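Minutes, project check-in
Item: structure for the 471-residue chain
Input as provided by the requester:
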Amino acid sequence: MIRQLLTAAAAMALFGAAPASAADYPPMPVPGPTKPFKVAAAETYRLPNGMQVTLIPYGEVPKAVINVRIYAGGLDAAPNEGLASLNALMMREGAGDLSSSQIAAASAGMGGNLLVNSGLHETVLGLSVLSDRAPDAVRLLGDLARHPTFPASEFDRVKTGLVRNVLVAKSQAQVAAAAALAAAYYGPNSPYGHVIPDENKVKGYTLEQVRQFYQNNFGAARARIYVAGQFDTAAVKAAIEQAFGGWAAGPQRGRFPPSPQTGPKVILVDRPGAPQSTIRLAFPAPAHGSPEDIPFQVTDALLGGSFTSRITANIREQKGYTYSPFSTINYNPGEGEWEFDADVTSAVTGPALKEVFGEIRRLQTEPVPDKEATGIRTWMAGTFVLRNASPAGLIGSLAERDQYGLPANWLDTYVPSVLAVPDAAFNTLAKERFPLNRAILVVVGDLKTVEPQLKALPELQNVPFQVVKPF
């Protein structure tokens, strides 16, 4: 029977099958009204030492996700960029009485995979485990957060690995573009202006510097623990008290307000012979939680931040200039940055940017059809619900809310706020937020091919050009 099926399939492949037409399929169902999103009942409290706890019983799958988030990251290490990353890497090499291999075995034995990661603002320790192991996972993360041993025997290996990763990253055009944009947008002397460390600086760090960074920045006052999923609440509470109750409060969270430096300016990075150009275009954006924030998020989705966005439809679907263009909003305390990213063939760098500028101008001058506006609002509402349909996604949203000091009901009000964005807001925000005299454009590519294309664009006339080395 199997041989007959394979023979039939081969015959169809050889002679072809009649393609199905739209008439062969039933009509697509009409979308129903957008359902409201309601965060599962959560319990938030504070330990006597100041550490905050949020417990969210959620879902039906017998698993729990635990995140410990400490507000200590790259900004706290400045000007020693890379030191916070080195600290995070060393934290998993030993904790309490456990070696790195024992930590890995303990994590795997709970059905989980350990995460220890450091960014600009925070260090995150996480585990996703079977429900009955949630108290054990809390205790393991408590050891990692409170009692890292920073074994000297592992330091050179870990540091060498970080240096290697830095060198690999520096070989990539996308990293070069991100580094050049950060330095241009925030200034080379700002801690926000450094997205990748200098490998020679990393080579010079000592184990004592790593230990000192930990001592200066880690403590209960900067920490929050989130537990979401299915778990025994009483047992998890007892484990949190046992694991973290005796942690010293330590320092208060550091505050690092950025000072963006807007354009207009064009920053170029030469990669002779490169077959494609990497583009970054940036404008200031509303701060997270400000009155313009959600309307601007919806505007971004329509312009470039979704797969069905106008820019994607233009330069990917219609022109074929690039495979995956996208835009996003990056947030820091008190400010936001809108960024468009694309990798395009060198020969069409200018034409691709011409289309991007044209889509911005169209959004500034032409009313958005109600069907298109309704579609993008519905998409935004739906993807928000999907993003928060898992314990890990929900923790991410709650942690974002808490990091930026958003209202306690921010998740509950997000969907209705998105659906309430008026059609006229797209034009208004496009005019206010995308003036070309504030833009910073970064292009990494073969400048002998690319630069003449850029200088021929009307939008870049009288804009200063600068060639830089980002590293």
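Outcome recorded: The first helix runs from residue 2 to 15.
No further action items on this chain.
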